[in-house]
Write a structure and sequence with these properties.
about 140 residues; two-stranded antiparallel sheet; globular
C-alpha cells in the first residue's frame, strides 16, 4: 500500500499483483460454507423462513454462480481494503468493522424503511458480519 499525501489529500493504492488470489478465492468460498450453515435448520433457517414467508428462489445455477462471482468481488475488495501487508489482528478487526459498520448497518436502514422485523435483521445482518470476519481471518493469516 502506498500513501500519497500530495495536495494534503490522503489516498491509498494497492497493487493488485501483491494480493493473494488463492486466499481471495478461499475467502469467497468461505461465505458459501458459512451461508449454508447459517441459513440451515441447525442455526437460523427456521427463523429466517418464518420471518420471510415463502421465498421463490431462482434457478440454482444462476443463483449460486452469480453469488459466487459477487463473493469473489467482495473478497477482492476486502483484500484490497485490508492490504497485502496487514497483520492478522488488523485484518480481522477491519473485516469485522466492514461487516458490521457498513453492511449490517446499511441493511438496518433499509429494514427500517421496509418495516422488516428486528429478528430478520439480526439473522440477515449477522451473516455478513460473521462472513466478513472469517474472510478477514483467511486474508490476514494466509500470506
Amino acid at each position: 500500500m502506498v500513501a500519497d499525501t500530495a495536495n494534503g489529500l490522503y489516498t491509498a493504492r494497492v497493487d493488485p499483483s501483491k494480493l493473494n488470489f488463492l486466499a481471495i478465492g478461499a475467502a469467497a468460498l468461505s461465505t458459501f460454507l458459512i451461508g449454508g450453515l447459517w441459513y440451515s435448520p441447525a442455526l437460523f433457517g427456521k427463523v429466517w423462513q418464518a420471518e420471510t414467508g415463502e421465498v421463490k428462489p431462482g434457478h440454482p445455477a444462476k443463483v449460486f454462480g452469480l453469488s459466487f462471482v459477487l463473493a469473489l468481488l467482495m473478497a477482492f475488495n476486502l483484500a484490497a481494503f485490508i492490504g497485502p501487508d496487514a497483520t492478522l489482528s488488523f485484518a480481522v478487526a477491519a473485516a469485522f468493522a466492514a461487516g458490521l459498520g457498513w453492511v449490517a448497518l446499511a441493511m438496518g436502514v433499509t429494514y427500517l424503511f421496509e418495516s422488516r422485523s428486528l429478528k430478520l435483521w439480526l439473522v440477515n445482518a449477522g451473516y455478513p458480519v460473521v462472513s466478513f470476519t472469517v474472510m478477514g481471518v483467511i486474508l490476514g493469516a494466509w500470506k
